[in-house]
Amino acid sequence: MFPLVGLRLYVRRLRAEIARGPGKLLMGPSGRRIQALTNLRHRQSRRDFQNYLANTFRFAPSRVERGDRVVLMEYNTIASGHIAYAFWLDALAQGGEAQLLPFRHAGIGPSLRTLSKFAGWPSDIYRAMGARQIIRPRLRRAERGAVAAEGRHVCSQITSKDALVRLEVDGIRIGDLVYDDYLRKARRATVDVKSQTFQKHFIKLYLLFHSWQRTFDEFDVVAVSASHWVYHLAFPLRIALHRRIPAYLIHAGGGMRLTSDRMGWDRHVEYKRDFAEMTSTEQARAQQQGRQRLEARLRGDPDPALLTSSSSAFARLQDRTRVLLPTDRFKVLVATHSFFDSPHAVGELLFPDFYEWLHFIGRLSNSLDYEFYLKVHPDDVSGSSQIVEAVVRQYPLLLRIPPDISHHQIVSEGIGGALTV
Question: Is the pLDDT of residue 80 over 90?
């Protein structure tokens, strides 16, 4: 039997989430806990989980035909998220009859394929949940030319970065998704809307968006779940919201039903409500765990919740050379972020991207009698460091400090304020 110790509260809240409706947040167990329960890449763990699914969580398996009622669920290799998908499906299945149809965001071959053609993991997990086919959005060959021409016209009308961020197509806002997707795929710090590279990427995503529109037209979609609310991965979520179809973010950290005014993971909005719904025992445990995690981060321990980070900016204070100048001027730390990591994940900011923000700080350094110290995260794996170096050459009053300097040392040397995004 698949072990589920520690997930009872998660399951109870997930079922309540489905019944409660949109705009509410579900908090689940930590990524570390789920990964400790099972590593679905290991054959025995995978077999145990498949047996558990077959006996507990399952849609009635059958072939899907065009026009059928379906639940669209993202097909991916995020092992810890598959556990959350199973509980979501179980809660959703109580609402009526529908077939489970996993989808891929990209691929080759027919748009609707038999899942058994994908051997091994993770297709075996999806089959255990009841899926028999998999779909990817695709336009007919005869449609592609007209849609691409329309996309080129739309792209030619985009005159600025802000106009791109606010772009809507068929009443659905996708500009922010296109913006962030381009930064990530092209590894650019910002967008030049008139560049050939951007325009080519725009046409590609325009075709994909309309492929998704066609998929929703061909099936009676009753719910959609995806792991990300950013990049092109969020196209099906945005389309579902526009068509008043329940759209969910489901992953190892929890789940949330999205709304037209809450289209992303804004877990902080529901902290107070979630805490109030806990029992007194759960509240005490949550406070203790929160305190322990804060203390661990300040000690410099790697945070398991930060799945993309293995280094800490709070490393223990070391006996090393002073990095801040010994002056009386006000000192400001500028902690940069990856330039490619979805600047619109929480909506519109004061600047269209992190690159524009950093240039603003550079211009500020020329007009204020402050000292600005730039620090790239010690776990920079995105190439942001090279971009920062180029910006520093334009603004000599921005002072670069080593990325592995501890925040504790910076504070002890007299930093007066900090700026970050």
Answer: no
